[in-house]
Amino acid sequence: xxxxxxxxLGGLSLVVLxxxxxxxxxQYHTSTNYNIETECxxxxxxxxxxxxxxxxxxxxxxxxEQARKNAVRDVIFKGISKGNNECNFKPLIVEVQAAxxxxxxxxxxxxxxxxxxxxxxxxxxxxxxxxxxxxxxQGSEVHYGVIIRVLRQKLKQQLKxxxxxx
Length: 166
Description:
Elements: H1 2-23, E1 39-43, E2 49-57, H2 60-78, E3 82-83, H3 98-101, H4 103-109, E4 120-133, E5 140-150, H5 152-161
Parallel strand pairs: 1-3
Antiparallel strand pairs: 1-2, 2-5, 4-5
């Protein structure tokens, strides 16, 4: 009888250990919060840059609009470092914390229907959809990659005219 209790206890502890180890296995998540960097596709003779930028939103139009904003923002503040090395890696504004310093200007600039749209050309536009489901259950989120042209020289002139660039 004693031996049977030991076997039962050993079997029960083995089951408990298996359950504990199974619950500790790593969880794999989709990268819905991963930001894909804007990449250079080429440079035109007028100084504009053809880039592939990504945006996410509740629908296609929202995601494409966000991708356009991301492309202009990257040209202004980050420079384009991925993709074809023809693009100008240096951002238009190299001043440290310029986004915070000129916060009011850039809030208006990047608002829906703001000035940023004047510096994006749809001449090279094409779309790359990627639809993902939000893991928090708040609906679906759409990701689009857009190939567009950013009018870098025109943007630089506007920032000088608005006294953002010296």
